Records
---
Amino acid sequence: MEGTTFYFSWEPVLMEALQRYMGPAGTTVASVLTMCGEEMLLIAILGFLYWCWDKQFGIFVGTSIVCGIVWNPLVKNLVLRRRPYFDLAGVKCLRAVDSSADIYDISAQGYSFPSGHSTNSTIIYGALPLYRRAERRRQSPRALRFFTILAFVLPCLVGISRVLLGVHYPTDVLVGWAMGAGIMFFVSYLQQKVKRRGLLHLILVLVSLLGIFYCKTTDYYTSLGIMIGFFLALPFEERFVKFENTRSVPRMILRVLGGIALYLVLNTLLKAPFSPMLLEEPTALAFLIRTARYAIIVFFVMAVYPLSFRFLGKKRHPGGLDAAANR
């Protein structure tokens, strides 16, 4: 096991005490809360915003999220802090980052500092009220207060759950919150100031590519692929697809479920040509395959999959009713 171990004296004391008294019910609650910062829920939220509610809102939030998921492992692979349960006998891992891998496999489980869940949840939930302010969108004070409260409460609960589950030190979470807030405001500022979207995306990718020189964990290469696929999909969709958002509840459900299903199917299919042993090894080839796989998946679900929205609309609403259904 590689990496470094450091912590304040109060951190293991607090973690051991929390785990000692939380019990099975507390573990269940913490596991549910931690899901609010995990991959599938983030995909569902971004899919809902992008495919259904407000395409530009989805792009605004998605740009910050892809930066967060890439830049977090950039820091992790510099600091190399091992997860608490690696070295603290009194702290148990109650929910592994990668349940299919050994809990002591750093390449699969990733490093500890800062907390990726805390970073990502701060970005995605914080972007809800930030977008309205940044775009000067009209919104009732009550709704804005609700989203602002949500932006503080959910990341707080997610971060606490990471400590309860034994996969992060409290200081991992504190820095994760700060990093998420910093990325959210910084990328929001860049999106407003840099009018040429392609140039902005190129700069963000070039900065993120620094990790290929030193990152040795799969989370970085997964996230790099997601970023590349995301930024390639946007100009393709804008030029060739131009799908419309919808307020139809059945359509929203179908779009989100269909997108998630396509994501899972493509992920499985693109693994098939390669041996599991190759994909699990921390080698340059395995990392390249992982990056390419996720870039292809995200490009298809964002740029190609929305072509079906127009097709299904024409089939279900003959006589020009599709436009009304999509308003």
Note: The chain has 15 helices and no strands.
---
Amino acid sequence: MSPASSPFAHNNQSVRKVMMQVQIAAFPALLTHIYLFGFGIVVQWLLAVATMLVVEYIMLKLRGRPVMPFMTDMSALITITGLVFCIPPEAPWWIIVSGSAFALIFGKHLYGGLGYNPFNPAMLGYAFLLISFPVQMTQWTLPVDLSGHALNFIQSAHYIFTGQIPGMNMDALTGATPLNAVRNGLSQGISATDIVTQTVKEEAFGLTSWGWVNVAFMVGGLWMMYSRVISWQFPVGFLGSLALISFIFNQYDPTLYPPASFMLLTGGTMLAAFFIITDPVTASTTPKGKLIYACGIGVLVYVIRQWGAFPDGIAFAIILMNIAVPLIDQYTQPRVFGHQR
């Protein structure tokens, strides 16, 4: 029997295949992170995976859904991977466990599962952790070039579970991120130019350790763009708007506003540009809408970084724009084929 209607098109993509491609694209950033900050992120990822398996099984059972098809689509794995990159590498074990559980339960399952959630689950979990545990979420492990010591896997695991490493002073191995350093310096009357120059130690090619991680995310993201896993409007809109507004304010007063290069290569900028805001469920779906959505996030990130209570602001910017997605899509629908004026 022939199909009822046409035309028909075959798409060789699937949820599992797309999620696997995203996971592969994040691998360069993972290796760079391990090289520069140690093995804490590996311990955190393993904890997040264990939490994911337990939470996914329980929630799918409670919802009366088949376990294996949904647990193997890798959507939950992408959620916890995105969250892990936002967590301080040596944060206490319960940070990533509670954050992953919150992201999956409140960001995904309570709305009906994948495809029905209005908010990005990873950013919802990240926002929950920032608000609930601000002290633990701001104690970042310093990169090797600043601390002079990289923790191995055993040392990282010991500190994550016990809060100490025998014979080692962890206070010398933790400190503020560049975004935190700028915020703290400005509050003390130090110019942004001096902070960027003095606080952030430059490495090869003028990139900080955080800069190298951002570059690694960009490499993976460009591969996804080339493979058409993600739409170009997301990174172009987000990075373009963030760069433009950073440039304008820096030209207006460089003592108060850091340069665009600093804004683009610190925090989770490239992670957001290529891996977070590109979420096909919670982002805009129309071509124009994707660009508007991404530009809105870029502007909000800058506003929160400069004048908000949190040094990065990516999680809150994305969640706020998630709210606006239905309205954006409504007013940016492309014309139907055959439409006449």
Note: The radius of gyration is 21 Å.
---
Amino acid sequence: MKAAFLTLGCKVNYYETEKMIEQFRQMGFTIVDFREKADVYIVNTCTVTNIADRKSRQMLHRAKKMNPEGYVAAVGCYVESSGDAWKKDPAIDAAFSNQEKTSVVYQVMQDLGLVPRSSEEGKRFVSQERTRAYLKIQDGCNQFCSYCMIPYVRGRGRLVSKPVNEVVSEVRKLASQGYKEVVLTGIHLSSYGVDGADAREFVRHQGEPLLSVIRETAAVEGIRRVRLGSLEPRIISEKFLTELVQVPEVCPHFHLSLQSGCDNVLKRMNRHYTAVEYKETVSLLRKYFVLPAVTTDVIVGFPGETEDEFGQTRAFLQEVGLADIHVFKYSPRQGTPAAARGDQISPGEKNRRSDILMRDTEEYRRNYGENFLGRKEKVLFEETTVEDGISYLSGHNERYVKIGVPLGRARENGYRENGIYDIEVEKILVK
């Protein structure tokens, strides 16, 4: 039977989808592209915004339209946040919570009346990216930002870290299958190793549990790069960076969530730092790493955000000069404090502010990428990309800048996908 998968949302979801794919393959399913007709469709959903909810529903309906007789399952955060609403949706045949993801394959086979085949040892770990593997090492969040449902749908605020020996075992498996880069992810990665602690305990530990698992991951033979998922700005300290810079496999690419450059808005969001503290964190990174790629998330149109407060965020971003920004329009999540506020911003105004920051971001991204023109960079090639009618072998450097070499020249030089090569950069590709 054929099974197709689609992942929405965070890198943790991508990791969890990869594990589900591996299980389905071991049970004898053929994995096909989500756009193809399949017997089983699995949509790993997201619920961080209303837009994410809508996208999840759209993809579930698209699957049912591709094969009305197929089995369509919704998995993950949308299932947990929507209550029993999915039962009224004719496109959805089954739903599984985040905690049930590891048993999806068995439930699906039971529903379909299939007899499981014995799994084969040594099956290739199927990744949605051929060269980069996502490894979830932490789950849960107890920060309770006023706009976010994640603590309620990911373990009710409970923190769970994967033991170091289990992480190393999985990394060795990935290395044996040819993966050269591992991305360590988590719902609140900075809380790795402080399970059961209060919301600020990870700061007191100064990231030592996370540093430990980073060192062990980097020490696995065959792993050339270790990239980190989103980090809490408060985990970045002189002590943390003094240790981190000693691990050469660590990519100098740091995604530090900001959300707003205005202190009043940050306070309403229940974020636990100020704009000045965030800027100091970025300065520390630039002290210890050469041209670090610092990227972030920003929410526009948060309830009560005035034009002046939006202007403060825009000015702050221009001052800090990040490598890339993911801009999100605030979307109310029922059950969160922010959704209950009466000072919601109109959709039109949120669109306007988003458009402004998106234009700014194009400039930030271009300015950062130009730093690497003419430099020698180590590029992990991943795929063939076409831009302006020209085919390139493309990949990313350690700072996640997308770099291309004309395909003909790449083949002449013996460059291949999933290989890391020293390249003199001539072309930065648009993301």
Note: The longest helix spans residues 347-370.
